[in-house]
Structures are given as structure tokens and as C-alpha cells.
Amino acid sequence: MEEEFIQVFTTTEKKEDAERIAKSVIEAKLAACVQIMGPIESTYRWKGKIERTAEWFCFIKSTKKMYPDLESAIKKEHPYEVPEIIAVPVSGGSAEYLDWLKGQVKE
Q: Which domain holds residue 42?
């Protein structure tokens, strides 16, 4: 199977921001599903200091074709100066689920 499906990850400080991103990308048909999990704890270096923050994690299911528009939509809604936006290819999955996923995003 060609790796046409992706999962995109992003994190936000507030649940409301995660929910706004989820609603936006689903309404625009850039993703089939967004799962929000949290809060999680993130430790990272930002502007020379080690930070520790509670965040909400978004798992976004989409297609490789939609990635450029999906990234733009996330950036538009995201409050962070440099948001985490990472896409990971899906190498396999249930044929029925992947067919459903493909039918939920723009062609």
C-alpha cells in the first residue's frame, strides 16, 4: 500500500485551543478525525530555558495530499509562536477504516 495516509501531531496549552483546531480542520475537510488527549506534561528548551508545561495532545488523521493545507490551518488557529506540527506516515491499517478516512477529506 502506498503511504498516502498520515497522522499529524500538535500540542496546545489550553484544551479550548485544541478543540478549536480540531473543529477547524474537520469542518474544512482537511482531516477525518482529531483525537484530543490530556493533559500531558511536556519538558522542552525554549529561548535558552528549560520549560515544563501541561499541554493537550491532538492526533489528527489525514492524507499526505492534505498536509500542506492542514499545516497552514493548524498554524492559523494555533496560539504558539512555533507550534509542534509533525506528520508521520501510516504504513498500514484496516482497509475499512482507511477507506472511511479517505472519504472524509477533500479529494
A: 5-104
